[in-house]
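Private note to self, pasted from the team thread so I don't lose it. Backbone tokens:
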């Protein structure tokens, strides 16, 4: 079970974007996530008239390692670690700081 999923509200805890908040928009692989407004890079795009793409410098969301992000505890509005516990025969994600179940 993955501790960080698509749609989770996170805060960046390490790197150049430390302190920024956002929502996970995509899981790239087992270790990387894409977060809106975080780790934005400038990329040079070639024009492609067949696809209707104009050329120039565009902003592109780049993946960030999941170890550099942490879930936001809604009660305290701070970063919190996540554990996985079995409740009523199902595995659920639980915040370490408050004990609240995530996504329920």
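Design output:
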């Amino acid at each position: 079970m993955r501790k960080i999923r698509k749609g989770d509200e996170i805060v960046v805890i390490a790197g150049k974007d430390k302190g920024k908040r956002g929502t996970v928009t995509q899981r790239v692989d087992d270790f990387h996530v894409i977060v809106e407004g975080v780790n934005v890079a400038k990329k040079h795009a070639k024009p492609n008239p067949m696809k209707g793409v104009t050329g120039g410098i565009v902003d592109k969301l780049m993946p960030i390692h999941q170890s550099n992000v942490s879930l936001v505890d809604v009660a305290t509005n701070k970063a919190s670690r996540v554990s996985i516990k079995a409740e009523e025969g199902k595995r659920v994600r639980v915040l370490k700081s408050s004990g609240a179940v995530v996504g329920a």
